[in-house]
Every structure is written in C-alpha cells, then in structure tokens.
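Form 7-S
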Amino acid sequence: MLKTRYTLIYVLLMTLVVVASNVLVQYPLQATLAGINLADILTWGAFTYPVAFLITDLTNRQFGPQAARKVVFAGFVVGVALSFVTAQPRIAIASGSAYLAGQLLDISVFNRLRRMAWWRAPLFGSLIGSMLDTLIFFSFAFAPFFVFFGPNDPFAIESAPILGVLSTAAPRWISWAIGDFTVKMTVGLVMLLPYGALMNVLKPAQQVPTA
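Output:
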C-alpha cells in the first residue's frame, strides 16, 4: 500500500516535470554570459528537465529499479503525447527516445553504484544518463543523417562559431547540445542537495530489488 502510494506520487511528480519542461522549452533564456548570448543556445526547459533524474533516483533508492522504470514509462507516455501535439514529429521522436534511453541508463548506473558512497549513484547516474539523453535528442532532432525522421532544419545545420564566440565553426545544433549538457551537469550537481536532504526521510524498503 505504501509502495503504491509513493509510486503514484513519483508518477505525478514526473508528469509535472515533463509537462513543465515541454512548456518551458519554448522560452529562450534571455541573458548573456562571457559574451555568449544564452538565448541562442538555452531555454528554461534545460533547467527543469534534470529534475526528472532526481525523481527517478529517489524512486530507485526507495523501491528499486522496477518501480523506477514504471515511473519513467509513465513520464514517457505523457512526454511523447505532449511532444506530438506541440512539436513536429521529428522533435517528438527525438524527445521521447532521448528521455527513455537517458532515464533507463540512469536507473542501471544508479543500481550498480547504490552500495557505494551516497552521492555516487545519483551523481554518475544522472550525468551519464544526461549525456546519452543530450546525444540522442540533438542527433535525432537535427543531424542530417537522421533525416528519415523528418526534414532537416536549415538553421540548425548551418555552420556558425561554436557557442557563438569560438573561432571554430560547427553546425548550430552542436552549440545547442553543448549548452544543454552544461546546464544538465550543473543542475545534476545541485540536485545532490535535495537528494541528500531526503535520504533519511525516503529510506529504502526492507527488500529493495536490485535487478
């Protein structure tokens, strides 16, 4: 009963994060840092999405990987449905694929490190999961190789200075991916604070499965 109640709470939280991120991804970050126009490479969604890894890790810690996967799949259904309604099919495919792969990898890494120092599992799980998430999303969404998912975005594949300031040029989507992953790493570190604070409250169930 307790597991069902908490799992439902995690599902609702994951749904909230997915919905918020789908909305906030439409709003660029209007700021400048070290000469970089952040509006060209970041949206507010980059700051909310990493919270999904915190929810997955808390579920995994308390009830194990099977419960965490249920929460992830619930978020996947919501995310894909919203993406197909609010975005082009190629973006929806990229978003759903990246979310599912990144979260499932996070669960696997977390499970392998759960017996080590408390911070290792959530930190490395979220960072490695975020790396895969970023790679899949921006490649599927913008790389010319994946044109079979939908038409290429001419602006995204147009060559421009990396991050808008470096002398080396690359397709714009590369800069978007770098900016996105940088934020995910930063937020992933910050998420260790609430994770650590909740460790003594959300203790693992007596027999947490590890498979």
